[in-house]
Amino acid sequence: METTVVLLKPDCIEKNLAGEVIKRFEGLGLRIRGCKMLSASDALLTDHYSHLADKPFFPEIVAFMQSTPIIALALEGPDSINLVRENLGPTDSTIAPKGSIRGDFGSDKMRNIAHASDSNESAEAEIRRFFSASDLF
Fold it and tell me: pTM to 2 decimals?
């Protein structure tokens, strides 16, 4: 069993799709170990997107991610990292196939409904970043 992190982004919240997205993940057999709504601080987003912090579009990412609260999910299941990423579809929603979450609901590369951990290492770091031990069940 592995646990992955999914962040439901502001476009997901604004479109009232959180329940639908969670339903799709649960339909895959994934179990919610943690779920919380939060307002992302500058420090949290700088840490989370540290690989993009020197890019000219970084302020746009921060503004977008702070435009509404986000929902952080810790999802557990066999091969959960790959399962979540396959069902989300490519980062660029404009090329994501219909039937994928991003293909059905996303708009572009940033407004793509959700972030998902891309490896065991990033999942472990993101679990520590978004959840305390008492937040996980």
Answer: 0.96
The verdict on residue 44 lying in a domain is no
Joined together, the tokens standing for residue 71 give: 């929902």
Q: What is the pLDDT of residue 29?
A: 98
Is 110 contained in some domain?
yes
Burial 3-25 (b: 16+ CB within 10 A, else e): bbbbbbbbbbbeeebbeebbebb
Beta-bridge partner residues of 70:
38
Range of the domain at 25: 2-38+72-135
- Report the CATH number that the domain containing residue 9 is assigned in CATH: 3.30.70.141
Domain count, the chain: 1
How far is 5 from 116, CA to CA, in rounded Å? 6
Question: What pLDDT was estimated at residue 46?
Answer: 96
Q: Has 48 been annotated as catalytic?
A: no
Residue 43: the pLDDT is 96
| pLDDT number for residue 16 | 98
CB 24 within 8 A of CB 8: no
How far, in Å, CA of 31 to CA of 105, rounded? 22
Catalytic annotation, pick one of 9, 33, 102, 115: 115
